[in-house]
Amino acid sequence: MAGTETIERTMKSAAKHSHAHTAFNEEHVLHELKHYLPSQTPIKDFIHHNTLHAFQQMKFYDAIFKAGKIFGYQVHLQLTEFRELYKIGRVKKDVFDRILNDRKGAEAEAWKVKLLTKEYDVINNSRLGLLRAEWKYQYKIDLDNSVHPLLFRILCSYLDQGVALWNFPVKNKSFLGALQELEKNSYVSFFKTNRAKQFLLNGKCSLTDLLKMVVGKSEYFEQYLFDQQFSHQGWSGMAASIEAMPNTLLDRRDISLHDLIVVELLFEIDALDFHLGEKWEPLTNKMNKEPVNLFADVSSSELQEVIQLWQETFEWSYYDEVLTGISLNKNRTRSISSQRNFQAIFCIDERECSLRRHIETADKNCETLGTPGFFSVEFFFKAENANFYDKLCPAPVTPKYLIKEFGSNEKREHELLYTKKAQTLLPGFFASIFLGFVAGAQLFLNLFRPKMSPAISNAFAHMHTHSQLTIENKGLEDRENDLQIGFTIEEMATRVESLLRSIGLVSNFAPIIYAIAHGSSSANNPHHSAHDCGACSGKPGSVNARVFAFMANHTKVRELLRERGILIPDETKFVGSMHDTASDQIGFYDEDSLTQKHILQHTKNKLAFEAALYANAKERTRRFASINSKQSLTGARASILQRSVSMFEPRPELGHGTNTLCIIGSREITKGLFLDRRAFMNSYNYKNDPDGKILTGVMRPIGLVCGGINLEYYFSRVDNYKLGAGTKLPHNVMGLIGVANSADGDLRPGLPVQMIEVHDPVRLLIIVEHLPEIVLKAIQSAPEVYEWYINEWVHLVALSPEDGNYYYFKNGAFTKYDPLLQPMNSIENFEQFVEEAKEMETNEIVDATQENLPVYLLN
Amino acid sequence: MEHLLQLFILVPFVGFFVTLLLPRKKEKSVSFAVLSIISIHLVGLLAFVAYWAFNHFPVLNVKHLTLFQTDDIEIFINFYFDKITAVYSLVGSVIALMVSVFSRFYMHREAGFKRFFSTLLFFFTGYNIVIFSGNFETFFVGWEIVGLTSFLLIAFYRDRYLPVKNALKVISIYRLGDICLILAMWMSHHLWHENITFQKLNDAVLMAEHLQHHYWFAVFVSLMIVIGAAAKSAQLPFSSWLPRAMEGPTTSSAIFYGSLSVHLGLFLLLRTYPYWETIVPVQVLIIVIGLSTSVIATLIGRVQSTVKTQIAYSSAAQIGLMFIEVALGFHTLALIHFAGNAFLRTYQLLVSPSVLSYLVHDMFFNFKPSSFTSQSSFKNSIYILSIKEWNLDFLLHQLLWKPFKWFGTRFNFLSAKLASVLLAVIFVAGLYAYFFQQIIPTAIFDLLPLLFSFIAFVLILKTFAERGDALRAWIEVVSSQLFIALSIALLNENFEHTHILMYLSGSLVSAIVGYVCLKRIKSVDGNIQLNQFHGYNYDQPILGFVFLIAGLGLVGLPFTPTFIGIDLLFSHIHKHEIVLIVLTTLSFLFIEIAVLRIYARIFLGQHKKQYHPIAFKSS
């Protein structure tokens, strides 16, 4: 809260920018609100996206400074933090000097002083909340305090998916209608006074009328509504997201932002009537100040430029290292054996980056590839006995297909201690007396012997290993709820072909090709869905891998593929499998369909996978303070497994923390480099795609998926209070749709601090192995794709196969970039390297970032 | 054997100081220290209980440390051990140990890691003082520590608004309970002319005789005990604080509001049972409170759509049943019920985040869309009432706090200058009266204590409602202390000067330190109005800590001289001086709230300078 004078000053300065206000247009304002509110859907499907997606049509820096000014978000690291990063060498001197020289030429020295020592007024007074603050000044009433708790409670009860034992009595009506009906048929009321209640009952609650009554002059309506809804942006955002996607709730509700606003205004009238009697005047009646134009341009300042330069020096300190690494790596001679024991197709997810490195070490004759983890097959999945479908493909896609699971007789187990009966009076009495001691014992076991239980989300339980799937469509009649069950041969072939071509796997097929999806098991973690596969709408990708393998093994599909020029030898078998990124376990599907010869090879390969998982677990231990990273491989893996089923562990894994790179090209360019677990890797072979047709397809989801993940981490990191979910530890599960900090709090969208503390807030650097002009064509294929690049929400570098140079994309064109080529260290003994890695002292950025290792060459 | 009892207090208490000395960033040493201490405590306890059982469960009572002694007053620390203590201490240590092990991982890298563990250990000390106590004074020390640590852990996330607001809300209710205990102590001082030990309460003959002579006074004492117990155990009409207390890390919610702290009200009833077991109205009252809580809390619990609040209300409902069990004399059942409920709620709270994936999964397979049937108006009304928590929170605010706040603001017309001159004059006049009593007419002289006590009360309420400058509020609180002392000094012809010195010596140092802290903040900022939260802990954490200690010292943190002083002062008010006792009691009720409010407004909440990420008010 700023003092009165500063508020006035801000109001004045913002008012200066205001344009002529047009009359209040309800539809337009509602649309604007929905556009700017957080768009996170119920937390069971956590879909990563650019937190500031509403500003994406602007250039990155313009967008963040504007969003910061309007909403009061912190949108970058603090100036002091940047300076600290420079001091500890995390922002490199040579990169720093180079960027300042490039940008500022003769003035570089002067700017150096500005960046390093000049004092700036860094206080950011936001434009939000100024109008509603008037309630406090004029009427001495805190409307938030009087309205929020009950409003949230009613809203949460209405939306509740199954926490309460006694549900909202009217569910088949809209929020407003339900409240109306409830109030009509009851002897008591949610309202303290009569007037607001009568408005509701008589349906005299058009938005404009209520606003006229509460706010007064119509030119203030928009500002008031923004103030009001952004004072609880979590709940408002949730209402708006559910309105846009009603099927995101399993138990549907007819909620709309409009209804929420109407109800809130009614409660505001109620609170005002209660405190002031019915004779209060609308808020703006006595105001002469112009309404604030929230979206007025933000004037640029020197501070903004300083921040911008800092951000870039911070980013390029790492990027330059990566490009140097790739260059140095290219010149190293490596014997490449042409024999292929197996190939493994992983998700592009940066957490698979390290596993791929280890599997390549465990078996020198294997090849790893990367593709978005839904394996180009998009469908809804219905688990056996389930009442609902899971969407298993990227969020923006709406599939037309359904895959059903059947033939498994495994029953889902229940957990006695989770029975809701324990919350009632008499059963609760017996529960306390008897179950209480069981709970005590269970807690003891949880602490000292954690193991998998039905209460833990288990990635491998998404689909039963021994169940069967309806992958092949049986004919036109084979449909359910307007979805085609399974795929036709033609549809299968198209998908398999598209995937194989996109990753450049069109020849040299190994005897076994693994399609390795990923999922994540974790305990006591409402955010578990954020750890699953982003390309599968926040679910484990096991079904996709299995479906893809089935399709690619299908003889008729192979025939079609052969006609289209992809000749998969008969002895090549695809095997679906899944890697649990939290517990570092792997599971294979349909192993019994392998022939004797394959089984032999598969058994051998499995040993390699196991070896790789041990090494991967060991590598991950360096991030976890509770695990001794110096212990043996076996011990390390056991600890990692235990961690994924520990109720007391708020960091079962670190999710996408540290993601920074996206490499689209051959594995050869990064093989032999230690990129930690920071690179999304999409295999792509430019040689098969001279005109960039395939590249266009490959590039389409990259911004949205990888860029979305990266920016969600960026913003949650720089402002974990307003753009992230804060620390997980006080979180309270609200109606199974989200988390809040306490009984009366607002929902907290975004990522919790436990997920982002290892993350360096830098934008994604996408490196594409192709000619700049082809890359340009690919990204310009669609405006929504191009927006990511031209507006600098991600960085893009083309690695030209022609001359081996890097070309950096800026302002619509590629220009040559020469990395500094500083000498680079090598890792001789990997285990020792992991054991000696530095551990952060605190999770403040300056300490935390020291845990992030530079690029190394691997020997 | 009795002399071993003190160890169960000393071990965690010493441990608390050890953790204070450990460096903030050394998580491993902090958690190791806490775990070792609680483990030692548990092992020692197990051995002790085994030995005690081997000796056929004797009731142990031992008088320790005398804090203060004159001819007619003796304040001492007394320990006691019986079956109730055995159950409470075993359950307490086991849960404390499990929660600490859980927290060791759970709290990793949390900014307040050390603060959490130190506070937890301090709480554990308080808890043990309560359950091992052998008289009200000792009991009260522990009771206060539990309250204070509750406040600190609810406001654990002190840079957000809601935790701080709710911490103040909870401590206010706790404070009400504390005051009831002070009154109970005050009255029993006068009834027994000594510090009654719990052991003596078990003397049936003595009790019967006592009741015969002082029936209505005993009813009063019991009533105070019942209110104190109901407040601490979230029974009606106080229940609504319990869900609001769930602001800290899940683990602290589990140990405080799931298990140990919330069952202490029940402990108080168990402990004082011999005192009121024959007083039928009190028994009936306890049953009514227990029954109505269990019904209403169950109803409210049923409509809760958030996991933690649901657990909170169902736990309160079970404690309601335990109240009934105690009142009916089923103590073994109550103890089993307590232990089971404590374990169950601890477990439920600790795993509460996992309810999301468990229930969503469950929905996936077992969900049946409810066929809509319209409910009767009666049911709808119950539903609405339950969502509104039967207006409990609202009513408490309207009936309990608002009138005092209103009263406090009535005196805002006095300008700071005028008020200080006026107060100074009155105070000097009072001193004059004290030293030259003989020249003042008795009729007037008798009214003076009342007058000064009223002035003190007004000053405190004014601070309680103060929205202006924090320094001014602080001065008001400090001067109220002087007026209280004066009023009591005037009351007692044969007043011991040492008593008043004892009281003021504690206050004075605190007053100066607190003043300096606020002055410092003011010199940085210029605006320290109490109409908003300033959040200075962000850049002045040490100053914040010092001010907190000073504030607690001023109002009588356990173990400070002021604390003993308060106890002494109360013993100087006779049992028939009802107006005076009401005023003084209310003063002590509001003074702590007022001081913590100053602390919270200046040092806690969202930092007002937005040069770094700051939480939304609603988060």
Task: Please give a handful of descriptors for the protein shown.
heterodimer; A: 859 residues; alpha/beta; 4 domains; 6-stranded mixed sheet; globular; disordered N terminus; B: 619 residues; mainly alpha; 2 domains; two-stranded antiparallel ribbon
The mean pLDDT of chain A is 92
Task: Tell me the structural class of chain A.
Answer: alpha/beta
- State the total count of DSSP E strands of chain B: 2
> Average pLDDT of chain B, to the nearest integer?
87
Fraction of residues in H or I helices of chain B? over 70%
Order of SSEs of chain B, N→C? HHEEHHHHHHHHHHHHHHHHHHHHHH
What is the CA–CA distance across the termini of chain B?
Answer: 52 Å
Main sheet specs of chain A: 6 strands, mixed
Q: Treating each run of at least 4 consecutive H or I residues as one helix, how many helices of chain B?
A: 24
* Count of beta strands of chain A: 22
By secondary-structure content and strand pairing, the structural class of chain B works out as: mainly alpha
Count of alpha/pi helices of chain A: 28
Summarize the structure in words.
The complex is a heterodimer of chains A (859) and B (619). Chain A is an alpha/beta fold. Chain A folds into 4 domains: 1-48 and 127-300, no CATH class; 79-121 and 303-333 and 657-859, no CATH class; 338-415 and 453-655, no CATH class; 416-448, no CATH class. By secondary structure, chain B is mainly α. Chain B folds into 2 domains: 2-353, no CATH class; 414-603, no CATH class. In chain B, 73% of the residues lie in helices and 3% in strands. A two-stranded antiparallel sheet of chain B has the order 1-2. The model of chain B has no long low-confidence stretch (mean pLDDT 87). At the A-B interface, helix 8, helix 17 and strand 15 of A face helix 3, helix 6, helix 10, helix 12 and helix 13 of B.
